[in-house]
Design brief:
By secondary structure, the chain is α+β, with helices and mostly antiparallel strands. The protein contains 11 helices and 8 strands.
Length: 410
Protein backbone atom coordinates (compact mmCIF):
# COMPACT_ATOMS: atom_id res chain seq x y z
CA UNK A 1 0.00 0.00 0.00
CA UNK A 2 1.60 3.27 -1.10
CA UNK A 3 2.05 5.96 1.45
CA UNK A 4 0.09 9.11 0.66
CA UNK A 5 -2.90 11.01 1.83
CA UNK A 6 -5.98 9.42 3.43
CA UNK A 7 -6.30 5.77 4.44
CA UNK A 8 -3.29 4.56 2.36
CA UNK A 9 -1.08 6.73 4.54
CA UNK A 10 -2.08 4.88 7.70
CA UNK A 11 -0.28 1.86 9.08
CA UNK A 12 -2.04 -1.53 9.04
CA UNK A 13 -2.19 -1.44 12.85
CA UNK A 14 -4.12 1.85 12.88
CA UNK A 15 -6.48 0.62 10.14
CA UNK A 16 -7.09 -2.58 12.07
CA UNK A 17 -7.82 -0.62 15.23
CA UNK A 18 -10.39 1.50 13.34
CA UNK A 19 -12.04 -1.58 11.81
CA UNK A 20 -12.64 -3.05 15.25
CA UNK A 21 -15.34 -0.41 15.78
CA UNK A 22 -17.17 -1.30 12.54
CA UNK A 23 -19.87 -3.81 11.74
CA UNK A 24 -18.49 -7.01 10.14
CA UNK A 25 -20.41 -6.22 6.94
CA UNK A 26 -18.64 -2.86 6.72
CA UNK A 27 -15.31 -4.57 7.32
CA UNK A 28 -16.07 -6.95 4.45
CA UNK A 29 -16.97 -3.98 2.22
CA UNK A 30 -13.70 -2.26 3.13
CA UNK A 31 -11.76 -5.37 2.12
CA UNK A 32 -13.08 -4.99 -1.43
CA UNK A 33 -11.60 -1.53 -1.92
CA UNK A 34 -8.07 -2.71 -2.78
CA UNK A 35 -5.69 -5.61 -2.56
CA UNK A 36 -3.91 -4.21 0.51
CA UNK A 37 -7.24 -3.77 2.36
CA UNK A 38 -8.20 -7.34 1.54
CA UNK A 39 -4.88 -8.55 2.95
CA UNK A 40 -5.37 -6.60 6.20
CA UNK A 41 -8.86 -8.08 6.72
CA UNK A 42 -8.38 -11.70 5.63
CA UNK A 43 -4.63 -12.37 5.72
CA UNK A 44 -3.30 -10.38 8.65
CA UNK A 45 -1.38 -13.30 10.18
CA UNK A 46 -3.45 -13.56 13.37
CA UNK A 47 -7.11 -13.41 14.38
CA UNK A 48 -6.91 -10.32 16.57
CA UNK A 49 -9.21 -8.28 14.31
CA UNK A 50 -11.83 -11.02 14.06
CA UNK A 51 -11.67 -11.82 17.75
CA UNK A 52 -12.35 -8.18 18.62
CA UNK A 53 -15.17 -7.97 16.05
CA UNK A 54 -16.69 -11.13 17.51
CA UNK A 55 -16.57 -9.95 21.12
CA UNK A 56 -17.91 -6.47 20.33
CA UNK A 57 -20.86 -7.71 18.23
CA UNK A 58 -21.63 -8.60 21.15
CA UNK A 59 -21.16 -12.30 21.84
CA UNK A 60 -19.93 -14.10 24.92
CA UNK A 61 -16.29 -15.08 24.97
CA UNK A 62 -16.34 -18.80 24.06
CA UNK A 63 -13.08 -19.31 25.96
CA UNK A 64 -15.09 -18.84 29.18
CA UNK A 65 -17.82 -21.36 28.32
CA UNK A 66 -18.19 -24.69 30.11
CA UNK A 67 -18.17 -26.41 26.72
CA UNK A 68 -14.59 -25.25 26.22
CA UNK A 69 -13.59 -26.42 29.70
CA UNK A 70 -15.13 -29.82 29.09
CA UNK A 71 -13.63 -30.36 25.66
CA UNK A 72 -10.99 -27.98 24.33
CA UNK A 73 -11.03 -27.25 20.62
CA UNK A 74 -9.47 -24.28 18.78
CA UNK A 75 -11.95 -21.49 18.08
CA UNK A 76 -11.98 -19.94 14.61
CA UNK A 77 -13.10 -16.36 15.32
CA UNK A 78 -13.45 -15.34 11.69
CA UNK A 79 -15.42 -18.35 10.49
CA UNK A 80 -17.73 -18.37 13.50
CA UNK A 81 -18.52 -14.66 13.23
CA UNK A 82 -19.21 -15.02 9.51
CA UNK A 83 -21.46 -17.96 10.27
CA UNK A 84 -23.47 -15.98 12.83
CA UNK A 85 -23.83 -12.89 10.66
CA UNK A 86 -25.05 -15.12 7.82
CA UNK A 87 -27.55 -16.83 10.17
CA UNK A 88 -28.86 -13.40 11.15
CA UNK A 89 -29.41 -12.49 7.50
CA UNK A 90 -31.07 -15.84 6.73
CA UNK A 91 -33.49 -15.61 9.63
CA UNK A 92 -34.67 -12.19 8.48
CA UNK A 93 -35.12 -13.20 4.87
CA UNK A 94 -38.67 -14.12 3.73
CA UNK A 95 -37.12 -16.20 0.92
CA UNK A 96 -34.86 -18.38 3.04
CA UNK A 97 -34.93 -22.07 2.14
CA UNK A 98 -35.58 -24.82 4.72
CA UNK A 99 -31.94 -25.85 4.44
CA UNK A 100 -30.78 -22.31 5.15
CA UNK A 101 -33.15 -22.00 8.12
CA UNK A 102 -31.83 -25.30 9.48
CA UNK A 103 -28.25 -24.00 9.25
CA UNK A 104 -29.33 -20.78 10.98
CA UNK A 105 -30.99 -22.74 13.81
CA UNK A 106 -27.84 -24.82 14.32
CA UNK A 107 -25.89 -21.57 14.54
CA UNK A 108 -28.25 -20.19 17.19
CA UNK A 109 -27.81 -23.38 19.20
CA UNK A 110 -24.05 -22.98 18.96
CA UNK A 111 -24.42 -19.46 20.36
CA UNK A 112 -26.21 -20.90 23.39
CA UNK A 113 -23.66 -23.71 23.82
CA UNK A 114 -20.74 -21.27 23.88
CA UNK A 115 -22.40 -18.82 26.30
CA UNK A 116 -20.48 -17.81 29.41
CA UNK A 117 -21.74 -19.21 32.71
CA UNK A 118 -23.10 -16.92 35.40
CA UNK A 119 -20.45 -16.26 38.05
CA UNK A 120 -20.63 -14.87 41.54
CA UNK A 121 -19.33 -11.53 40.30
CA UNK A 122 -22.13 -11.02 37.77
CA UNK A 123 -25.00 -12.69 39.66
CA UNK A 124 -26.88 -9.40 40.06
CA UNK A 125 -27.23 -9.34 36.30
CA UNK A 126 -26.26 -11.57 33.44
CA UNK A 127 -22.89 -11.09 31.74
CA UNK A 128 -22.35 -7.98 29.70
CA UNK A 129 -22.89 -9.49 26.28
CA UNK A 130 -26.57 -10.04 25.41
CA UNK A 131 -26.21 -13.06 23.10
CA UNK A 132 -29.79 -14.14 23.87
CA UNK A 133 -31.23 -10.81 22.81
CA UNK A 134 -29.40 -11.20 19.50
CA UNK A 135 -30.76 -14.74 19.00
CA UNK A 136 -34.39 -13.83 19.68
CA UNK A 137 -34.22 -10.66 17.58
CA UNK A 138 -32.94 -12.49 14.52
CA UNK A 139 -36.17 -14.03 13.24
CA UNK A 140 -39.10 -11.59 13.03
CA UNK A 141 -39.58 -12.38 9.33
CA UNK A 142 -40.13 -16.14 9.68
CA UNK A 143 -42.95 -18.33 10.96
CA UNK A 144 -40.58 -19.60 13.64
CA UNK A 145 -41.28 -16.42 15.58
CA UNK A 146 -44.68 -17.80 16.62
CA UNK A 147 -43.16 -20.92 18.11
CA UNK A 148 -40.44 -18.85 19.76
CA UNK A 149 -43.00 -16.57 21.43
CA UNK A 150 -45.08 -19.53 22.61
CA UNK A 151 -42.23 -21.73 23.70
CA UNK A 152 -40.08 -19.17 25.49
CA UNK A 153 -42.83 -16.80 26.67
CA UNK A 154 -40.95 -13.73 25.38
CA UNK A 155 -43.72 -11.71 23.72
CA UNK A 156 -42.73 -8.06 23.64
CA UNK A 157 -44.85 -4.92 23.58
CA UNK A 158 -43.83 -4.32 19.96
CA UNK A 159 -45.17 -7.70 18.84
CA UNK A 160 -47.94 -7.20 16.20
CA UNK A 161 -51.44 -8.25 17.23
CA UNK A 162 -51.66 -10.54 14.19
CA UNK A 163 -48.71 -12.52 15.51
CA UNK A 164 -50.31 -12.75 18.95
CA UNK A 165 -53.54 -14.07 17.45
CA UNK A 166 -51.70 -16.67 15.36
CA UNK A 167 -49.61 -17.62 18.36
CA UNK A 168 -52.72 -18.33 20.43
CA UNK A 169 -54.11 -20.67 17.78
CA UNK A 170 -50.73 -22.34 17.38
CA UNK A 171 -50.48 -22.78 21.15
CA UNK A 172 -53.78 -24.70 21.26
CA UNK A 173 -52.67 -27.01 18.48
CA UNK A 174 -49.20 -27.44 19.96
CA UNK A 175 -50.65 -28.30 23.36
CA UNK A 176 -52.87 -31.01 21.88
CA UNK A 177 -50.04 -32.56 19.85
CA UNK A 178 -47.72 -32.43 22.87
CA UNK A 179 -50.28 -34.14 25.11
CA UNK A 180 -50.71 -36.96 22.61
CA UNK A 181 -46.95 -37.46 22.52
CA UNK A 182 -46.35 -37.23 26.27
CA UNK A 183 -49.20 -39.50 27.33
CA UNK A 184 -48.60 -42.16 24.67
CA UNK A 185 -47.28 -45.12 26.68
CA UNK A 186 -45.63 -46.45 23.52
CA UNK A 187 -42.98 -43.73 23.95
CA UNK A 188 -41.73 -45.31 27.20
CA UNK A 189 -39.85 -48.58 27.54
CA UNK A 190 -36.87 -50.15 29.28
CA UNK A 191 -34.59 -49.38 26.32
CA UNK A 192 -35.12 -45.62 26.68
CA UNK A 193 -35.02 -45.74 30.52
CA UNK A 194 -38.75 -44.90 30.66
CA UNK A 195 -37.88 -41.30 29.89
CA UNK A 196 -37.49 -38.72 27.10
CA UNK A 197 -34.65 -40.56 25.40
CA UNK A 198 -34.05 -42.64 22.31
CA UNK A 199 -33.12 -46.29 22.59
CA UNK A 200 -29.50 -45.42 21.79
CA UNK A 201 -29.32 -43.23 24.90
CA UNK A 202 -29.50 -39.85 23.13
CA UNK A 203 -31.98 -37.25 24.34
CA UNK A 204 -35.27 -37.15 22.44
CA UNK A 205 -35.63 -33.38 22.30
CA UNK A 206 -39.03 -33.61 20.61
CA UNK A 207 -40.20 -35.50 23.68
CA UNK A 208 -38.58 -32.95 26.00
CA UNK A 209 -40.25 -30.06 24.17
CA UNK A 210 -43.61 -31.83 24.38
CA UNK A 211 -43.21 -32.19 28.14
CA UNK A 212 -42.38 -28.50 28.44
CA UNK A 213 -45.43 -27.56 26.40
CA UNK A 214 -47.74 -29.69 28.55
CA UNK A 215 -46.37 -28.43 31.86
CA UNK A 216 -46.27 -24.74 30.97
CA UNK A 217 -49.78 -24.87 29.51
CA UNK A 218 -51.14 -26.64 32.58
CA UNK A 219 -49.39 -24.27 34.98
CA UNK A 220 -50.79 -21.28 33.11
CA UNK A 221 -54.31 -22.78 33.07
CA UNK A 222 -54.50 -23.95 36.67
CA UNK A 223 -52.62 -21.08 38.32
CA UNK A 224 -54.48 -18.30 40.08
CA UNK A 225 -53.95 -15.09 38.03
CA UNK A 226 -53.96 -13.06 41.25
CA UNK A 227 -51.01 -15.05 42.63
CA UNK A 228 -47.35 -14.96 41.71
CA UNK A 229 -46.43 -16.65 38.43
CA UNK A 230 -45.06 -20.07 39.43
CA UNK A 231 -44.01 -21.17 35.97
CA UNK A 232 -40.32 -22.07 35.60
CA UNK A 233 -38.09 -19.39 34.04
CA UNK A 234 -38.35 -19.30 30.25
CA UNK A 235 -36.23 -17.74 27.55
CA UNK A 236 -32.68 -18.22 26.40
CA UNK A 237 -31.17 -16.36 29.33
CA UNK A 238 -32.55 -19.08 31.62
CA UNK A 239 -30.35 -21.62 29.80
CA UNK A 240 -27.10 -20.02 30.95
CA UNK A 241 -24.92 -22.30 33.03
CA UNK A 242 -25.19 -21.59 36.78
CA UNK A 243 -28.06 -19.13 36.33
CA UNK A 244 -30.21 -21.02 38.88
CA UNK A 245 -30.70 -19.28 42.24
CA UNK A 246 -27.80 -20.01 44.58
CA UNK A 247 -25.76 -21.77 41.90
CA UNK A 248 -22.89 -19.30 42.08
CA UNK A 249 -22.39 -19.92 45.83
CA UNK A 250 -22.73 -23.71 45.66
CA UNK A 251 -20.44 -26.30 47.22
CA UNK A 252 -17.37 -26.50 44.90
CA UNK A 253 -17.92 -30.26 44.59
CA UNK A 254 -21.52 -29.74 43.53
CA UNK A 255 -20.95 -29.03 39.84
CA UNK A 256 -24.64 -29.71 38.81
CA UNK A 257 -26.05 -27.47 41.56
CA UNK A 258 -27.90 -30.32 43.31
CA UNK A 259 -27.92 -29.07 46.87
CA UNK A 260 -30.71 -26.79 47.99
CA UNK A 261 -34.44 -26.38 47.63
CA UNK A 262 -36.23 -27.29 44.42
CA UNK A 263 -39.79 -26.81 43.18
CA UNK A 264 -41.08 -29.86 41.32
CA UNK A 265 -44.13 -29.64 39.06
CA UNK A 266 -45.84 -32.84 37.92
CA UNK A 267 -48.72 -33.45 35.51
CA UNK A 268 -50.48 -36.76 35.12
CA UNK A 269 -53.43 -38.25 33.28
CA UNK A 270 -55.80 -41.05 34.23
CA UNK A 271 -55.07 -43.58 31.47
CA UNK A 272 -58.02 -45.84 32.19
CA UNK A 273 -60.20 -43.98 29.71
CA UNK A 274 -57.47 -42.53 27.50
CA UNK A 275 -57.42 -43.26 23.76
CA UNK A 276 -55.15 -41.77 21.11
CA UNK A 277 -57.82 -40.64 18.66
CA UNK A 278 -56.09 -37.79 16.90
CA UNK A 279 -56.36 -35.56 19.94
CA UNK A 280 -60.16 -35.34 20.11
CA UNK A 281 -59.94 -36.99 23.53
CA UNK A 282 -58.65 -33.68 24.92
CA UNK A 283 -61.66 -31.77 23.58
CA UNK A 284 -63.83 -33.30 26.28
CA UNK A 285 -64.75 -31.23 29.29
CA UNK A 286 -63.17 -33.66 31.77
CA UNK A 287 -60.44 -36.14 30.97
CA UNK A 288 -58.63 -36.59 34.27
CA UNK A 289 -55.47 -34.52 33.76
CA UNK A 290 -54.07 -32.84 36.87
CA UNK A 291 -50.99 -30.94 38.00
CA UNK A 292 -49.43 -30.58 41.43
CA UNK A 293 -46.25 -29.26 43.00
CA UNK A 294 -43.72 -30.76 45.39
CA UNK A 295 -40.92 -29.16 47.41
CA UNK A 296 -37.59 -30.99 47.31
CA UNK A 297 -34.69 -30.42 49.66
CA UNK A 298 -31.56 -32.20 48.40
CA UNK A 299 -27.99 -32.69 49.59
CA UNK A 300 -24.96 -34.61 48.32
CA UNK A 301 -24.01 -38.01 49.72
CA UNK A 302 -21.03 -40.29 49.16
CA UNK A 303 -21.59 -43.18 46.71
CA UNK A 304 -20.86 -45.81 49.36
CA UNK A 305 -23.61 -44.43 51.60
CA UNK A 306 -26.37 -45.02 49.04
CA UNK A 307 -28.69 -47.65 50.60
CA UNK A 308 -29.04 -51.12 49.11
CA UNK A 309 -32.72 -50.58 48.40
CA UNK A 310 -31.81 -47.99 45.76
CA UNK A 311 -32.74 -50.40 42.99
CA UNK A 312 -32.36 -48.22 39.88
CA UNK A 313 -29.45 -48.91 37.56
CA UNK A 314 -26.60 -46.57 38.45
CA UNK A 315 -25.08 -44.16 35.98
CA UNK A 316 -21.51 -44.97 34.87
CA UNK A 317 -18.66 -43.08 36.44
CA UNK A 318 -17.71 -40.02 34.41
CA UNK A 319 -14.35 -39.92 32.64
CA UNK A 320 -14.12 -36.16 33.18
CA UNK A 321 -12.65 -35.29 36.60
CA UNK A 322 -14.36 -31.89 36.44
CA UNK A 323 -17.80 -33.52 36.29
CA UNK A 324 -17.82 -36.74 38.33
CA UNK A 325 -21.02 -38.74 38.79
CA UNK A 326 -22.65 -37.49 42.01
CA UNK A 327 -25.24 -38.97 44.36
CA UNK A 328 -27.80 -37.20 46.50
CA UNK A 329 -30.60 -37.78 48.97
CA UNK A 330 -33.26 -35.59 50.49
CA UNK A 331 -36.95 -35.12 51.08
CA UNK A 332 -40.00 -34.47 48.91
CA UNK A 333 -42.96 -32.68 50.52
CA UNK A 334 -46.40 -32.32 48.95
CA UNK A 335 -49.31 -29.99 49.62
CA UNK A 336 -50.59 -32.28 52.38
CA UNK A 337 -47.20 -32.16 54.13
CA UNK A 338 -46.47 -35.82 53.32
CA UNK A 339 -42.68 -36.19 53.42
CA UNK A 340 -41.03 -38.83 51.25
CA UNK A 341 -37.38 -39.80 50.94
CA UNK A 342 -35.59 -39.10 47.66
CA UNK A 343 -32.41 -40.87 46.48
CA UNK A 344 -30.72 -40.29 43.14
CA UNK A 345 -27.71 -39.39 41.04
CA UNK A 346 -26.56 -36.96 38.34
CA UNK A 347 -24.26 -37.81 35.45
CA UNK A 348 -22.71 -35.95 32.49
CA UNK A 349 -22.28 -38.13 29.43
CA UNK A 350 -19.54 -37.92 26.82
CA UNK A 351 -21.34 -35.23 24.77
CA UNK A 352 -22.02 -32.97 27.76
CA UNK A 353 -25.67 -33.85 28.41
CA UNK A 354 -26.53 -33.82 32.13
CA UNK A 355 -28.95 -36.57 33.20
CA UNK A 356 -30.82 -36.95 36.49
CA UNK A 357 -32.21 -40.18 37.95
CA UNK A 358 -33.91 -40.62 41.32
CA UNK A 359 -36.49 -42.64 43.23
CA UNK A 360 -38.83 -41.78 46.07
CA UNK A 361 -41.02 -43.56 48.57
CA UNK A 362 -44.80 -43.50 48.38
CA UNK A 363 -46.59 -41.49 51.04
CA UNK A 364 -47.71 -43.64 54.00
CA UNK A 365 -45.76 -46.63 52.68
CA UNK A 366 -43.49 -48.83 54.77
CA UNK A 367 -39.97 -47.61 55.39
CA UNK A 368 -37.52 -48.15 52.53
CA UNK A 369 -40.32 -49.09 50.13
CA UNK A 370 -39.54 -47.31 46.86
CA UNK A 371 -42.48 -46.45 44.66
CA UNK A 372 -41.72 -43.77 42.07
CA UNK A 373 -38.79 -43.37 39.70
CA UNK A 374 -37.88 -40.31 37.64
CA UNK A 375 -35.64 -39.73 34.62
CA UNK A 376 -34.70 -36.22 33.57
CA UNK A 377 -32.34 -34.08 31.53
CA UNK A 378 -30.90 -30.66 32.34
CA UNK A 379 -32.10 -27.91 30.00
CA UNK A 380 -29.41 -25.58 28.68
CA UNK A 381 -26.14 -25.30 30.56
CA UNK A 382 -25.13 -26.93 33.81
CA UNK A 383 -27.28 -25.75 36.75
CA UNK A 384 -29.26 -23.41 34.54
CA UNK A 385 -32.39 -21.65 35.78
CA UNK A 386 -34.41 -23.56 33.16
CA UNK A 387 -34.16 -26.62 35.40
CA UNK A 388 -34.57 -30.33 34.71
CA UNK A 389 -37.31 -31.88 32.57
CA UNK A 390 -38.32 -35.53 32.50
CA UNK A 391 -40.91 -38.16 33.33
CA UNK A 392 -41.86 -40.27 36.34
CA UNK A 393 -43.47 -43.67 36.69
CA UNK A 394 -43.73 -46.65 38.99
CA UNK A 395 -40.32 -47.96 39.99
CA UNK A 396 -41.48 -51.43 38.87
CA UNK A 397 -43.05 -50.18 35.61
CA UNK A 398 -46.09 -52.41 35.89
CA UNK A 399 -48.41 -52.87 32.95
CA UNK A 400 -50.79 -49.97 32.81
CA UNK A 401 -48.75 -47.50 34.82
CA UNK A 402 -48.06 -44.14 33.24
CA UNK A 403 -45.10 -41.82 32.72
CA UNK A 404 -46.36 -38.28 33.31
CA UNK A 405 -44.17 -35.24 32.71
CA UNK A 406 -42.34 -33.42 35.46
CA UNK A 407 -39.97 -30.48 35.77
CA UNK A 408 -37.54 -29.37 38.46
CA UNK A 409 -36.83 -25.64 38.41
CA UNK A 410 -34.31 -24.77 41.12
Amino acid sequence: MKRGNGIPSLSPEIIEHALIHCHPRHVAAFSQTCRAAYKIVYHCGDQYLWRQLFLSYPFDDPRESLERLRRYTPFDWKSELQRRVLAEAISRSPRATPEELTDALETFLNVVHTASPVTQWVRSGFPRRAYCGWSTSCNPATCCVHQLFDHYNIISESCPSSILSCSHLLMITTRMISRCYVYDLGNYCRENDWGPFWKNGCVNWVHVESIINVLLSNLAEFSDPSQIDIRPPCGLEATRAYSAPGATTRNPKDWPGIEGKWARYVSFLDHRNFHLDGGSFFDRARYGEAIFSLDLNLHLVEPDTVPDYYTLERFPESDNPLYPTLYFSGTSTGSQENEDEVIGSVYMNEVGVVRWRFVSTMASACNNHLRWSSEGVQLGGVASAAGVVGSWTSVYHEQGTYSPPCTLPN
